[in-house]
């Protein structure tokens, strides 16, 4: 594994040096953003399927890095299911409670430091203390902790060592660090011209007047990209409701009742929900996302 890591690092440095030499030799400027397809910008996004794919290969994390980071955080919680997963759940709730992207960007450096600090702490707990120096009190007390409690708190133990696998924690730290860079890059004018902006739509707008603020032409035509847009904007709402219904019916417990209530509430009003003011629509989805984070935290606490 260590040889593989060293090989990947050497491969990366070789590519970086070759690109630097090629740009210096041909008098080329270093692009303001690390991209694969040169010349593909936000203006090419709506020109067809191939330019759209190239654009998202270049700027997928720039546009959806926050969502990817949150998905990885939920994956870490589901994989660990211990005390530190509960801490990750609380951090996730604290980040999502900010709601707006700009507000999340202000607290994101603290979230990255929190993730890095937890990794360092867990690494020290895995190393532990040499047996000749001391004995852990949770094994020698009058009422010692059980092995399951020690495992849940991720405490160092001579009888049962903590699991030293940090692959998911490392992915979370990697994604959150990259997203920190995105929050800084999206404030630069050169990056906005190249990749577009990540400014949120105003919450006071009426959905019926959205066509006045859409910078592209009507996509109800006959190209394949327009068909993809029609599917996403017309049927994705119902696809999400199907996932909520499956989540609520897969297991029978008190937490699944909330998903069923949310699903039937959205199905009761149907597509008319999307014609409500933006503030009202986002408030509903904020409640659903908040409830989901609460369920994740409670399941981890009660596991």
List the helices and strands and how they pair.
Elements lengths: L1 H24 L23 H32 L2 H14 L4 H27 L9 H4 L6 H7 L13 H19 L3 H7 L28 H27 L3 H16 L8 H25 L1
GO molecular function: mechanosensitive monoatomic ion channel activity
InterPro entries: Piezo (IPR027272), Piezo_TM25-28 (IPR031805)
Protein name: Piezo TM25-28 domain-containing protein
Structural class comes to mainly alpha
Q: Given the C-alpha coordinates, what overall shape results?
A: flat
Order of helices and strands: HHHHHHHHHHH
Summarize the biggest pleated sheet.
none
Total discrete domains: 2
Helix content: 55-70%
How large is the radius of gyration? Answer: 24 Å
Considering the chains and any ligands shown, give keywords for the structure:
67% helix, 303 residues, 0% strand, mainly alpha, 11 helices, flat
Your description of this structure?
The chain is mainly alpha-helical and 303 residues long. The chain has 2 domains: 42-197, no CATH class; 222-302, no CATH class. Helices cover 67% and strands 0% of the residues. The chain contains 11 helices and no strands. The chain has helices spanning 2-25, 49-80, 83-96, 101-127, 137-140, 147-153, 167-185, 189-195, 224-250, 254-269, 278-302. Helix 3 runs antiparallel to helix 4. The radius of gyration is 24 Å and the shape is flat. The two termini are 33 Å apart. This is Piezo TM25-28 domain-containing protein. It comes from Seriola lalandi dorsalis. One of its GO terms (cellular component) is membrane. Keywords: Membrane, Transmembrane, Transmembrane helix. The chain crosses the membrane at residues 55-77, 111-138, 227-247, 254-274, 280-302.
């Amino acid at each position: 594994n260590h040889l593989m890591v060293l090989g990947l690092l050497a491969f990366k440095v070789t590519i970086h040096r070759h690109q630097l030499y090629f740009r210096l030799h041909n008098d080329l400027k270093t692009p303001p953003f690390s991209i694969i397809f040169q010349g593909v910008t936000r203006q090419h996004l709506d020109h067809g399927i191939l330019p759209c794919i190239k654009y998202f290969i270049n700027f997928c994390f720039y546009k959806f890095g926050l969502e990817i980071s949150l998905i990885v955080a939920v994956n870490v919680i589901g994989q660990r299911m211990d005390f530190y997963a509960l801490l990750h759940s609380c951090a996730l709730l604290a980040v999502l409670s900010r709601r707006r992207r700009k507000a999340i960007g202000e607290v994101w450096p603290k979230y990255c430091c929190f993730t890095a600090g937890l990794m360092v702490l867990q690494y020290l707990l895995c190393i532990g203390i040499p047996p000749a120096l001391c004995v852990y009190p949770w094994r020698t007390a009058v009422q010692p902790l059980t092995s399951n409690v020690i495992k849940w708190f991720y405490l160092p133990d001579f009888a049962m060592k903590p699991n030293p696998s940090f692959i998911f924690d490392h992915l979370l730290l990697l994604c959150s660090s990259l997203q920190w860079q995105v929050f800084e890059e999206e404030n630069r004018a050169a990056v906005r011209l190249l990749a577009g902006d990540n400014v949120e739509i105003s919450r006071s707008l009426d959905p019926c007047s959205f066509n006045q603020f859409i910078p592209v032409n009507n996509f109800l035509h006959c190209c394949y990209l327009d068909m993809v847009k029609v599917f996403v904007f017309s049927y994705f709402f119902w696809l999400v409701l199907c996932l909520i219904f499956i989540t609520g019916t897969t297991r029978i417990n008190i937490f699944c009742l909330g998903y069923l209530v949310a699903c039937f509430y959205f199905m009761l009003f149907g597509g008319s929900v999307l014609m409500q003011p933006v503030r009202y629509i986002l408030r509903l989805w904020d409640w659903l996302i908040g409830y989901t984070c609460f369920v994740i935290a409670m399941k981890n606490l009660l596991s």
